[in-house]
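Support request, please re-run this one:
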Amino acid sequence: MKKALIVGAGKGGTALLKIFEQAATMEVAAVVDRNDRAPGLELAKTMNIPTGSDWRPFLTNDIDIVIEATGEKDVFEQIRKKRQKNTVVIPGEVAYIIAELVEEKEALIATLKSETARRDLIFNSTHDGMIVVDEFAYITHMNDSAAFMIEVDKHQAIGKHILEIIPTSGLPRVLKTKQIEFHQELELENGRKIITTRIPMVGESGKLLGALAVFKDVTEVMQLAEEVTNLKEIRMMLEAIIHSSEEAISVVDEHGNGILINPAYTRLTGLSEEEVIGKPATADIAEGESMHMQVLKTRKPVRGVRMKVGPKNRDVIVNVAPIIVDGALKGSVGVIHDVSEIQRLTNELNRARQIIRTLEAKYSFADIIGTSEEMMVAIEQAKLAAKTPVTILLRGESGTGKELFAHAIHNASDRKYNKFIRVNCAAISESLLESELFGYEEGAFSGAKRGGKRGLFEEANNGSIFLDEIGELSANTQAKLLRVLQEREIVRVGGTKPIPINVRVIAATNVNLEKAIAAGTFREDLYYRLNRMPIHIPPLRARKQDIPALCQHLIHKLNQDYGRNVEGLTDEAIRYLSTYDWPGNVRELENVLGRAMIFMKFNETQMDVHHIPPLQMPRDKQIKEVVGREVLRPLEEMLEQYEAQIIDAALRQCRGNKTATAKMLGISIRNLYYKLEKYGLAKKYMQ
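Re-run finished. Output below.
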């Protein structure tokens, strides 16, 4: 009987102990492991087998086999040096293979005792080749892996003698000796080399049932080598991609030393590979801290950090991210952007946005702030008008938001995907306005462009044109505009051929057009064309309940403009603002809030009364002198109030008949409807 010493009582050593305990020709002399809690030591103690933490005292002259199951190369070499010449030392790798094969054997034996289908499933699912023979060496089972390695049809092989399929097989010998043969090398007829373990299968009664061969193809080792080669190819491919990128890229290892840069990095920083590779990550920094080192420390990415790099102090923005593989930090990768290039692209974007803003409406009805009855009436009228192609006249004082309404009307119409052209009639000189609106032909005047120029009406074709300050148009331009509204066509300056257009006109004015007609400065026929859908936008003094919401909206806008974080106004500040009549309307309110924000400290979040500059009416608005019990107000305001009273009295006298009322007052029925809207009497006398 041979004596065996097992060094290592882990998984492999425990498996060997179980096997040797069952083998009649093998006696386990001792089990050794430095870990006194190893499972093999506990099992050996239950079997009354000597145990210990050092193998040297147990390596006596009568030991035939030493199983080194620790897997440590040093231990294996030490045992080989200390062993006797007749002592065989089996390395730890074999022990683990044996343990694996034994586990597979035990699983197979258990499977053979269960259902045939389940046994076949497990038998064929293993990657190792398996062949089972009966007690006469005839093949009873062969899995797919074995058939693949041997290159036979397993269905034809089953039932044949093992030597017919594998002439050099050792299974007949195992059937005779009933001994396990571990880690035997065998070369098949097709040239494959395999490592096989042959195990006799003995029933509970001790009867020989057959034998099992489990073998591995050593070509797997070669496949692993090929995989390593593939990994190298993948790395080379990734490096090629990085080098071809136009983005400046740098990579450092886990210690912060440079391992890779690309040509774009060299072009941007002026640093070569010799100056970066193998050097600390700080080698390229001219001003600032190393983001590579910060990322390696925190394991978190950073973005948009500005610094200066290279000998030319290039101003850059860097983004750096950690490289983490299977939870382990392997380094970091940084992408560097040239700020000057970003600035150039930003400028181009801003220019594009500026162009787009001149052609598109920016606001919608959601941007109009106000819940007062006067404002809601104006908004509802505008929404109704937006759904029709009718010409719209926006009336209201300066700063009430007429342009805001024009934008919203265009965006709510079916023309919203076409151009929205804005024209301030008062901002363009009379000599240029006509050619700007209607365009000109080549040679129309000195300095005219070759080929002529399209006018703003042509540019706005199928869209909308907003004519602000329409009351400032000259008589000649008024006549041309009237033709556009009547005939839906324009004639360029210096041209004779009419050009048809499809444009919705939205006009706006803060001038009293009726007085302008009386004074002879505005055409009455043009007035009737423009005044087809008049919308009166109330002044801020007529809707002071909207001041809190307006203030909140304007403060949010001013925060973005000034880089502040003001949250709102105090109640006292709101009350103070509500006592003022706001002759400049919303534009003046925005101006006052902007000045107040400038005077606030950066840590203040609430605007109070002391931040707001003193509010005083202009001198021509400060008529507050008391005569008797009546407070004098601006003449225009008192005249409008008196006019509203007269119209109301006339309508009552005519029992709401608007035609009779207009005839009594000596005004047109259209003018009467406008005044009813203006003074809020329309709902009172609806028919």
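Residues 126-222 form a domain with the Beta-Lactamase fold (CATH 3.30.450.20). Confidence is low (pLDDT under 50) at residues 618-630.
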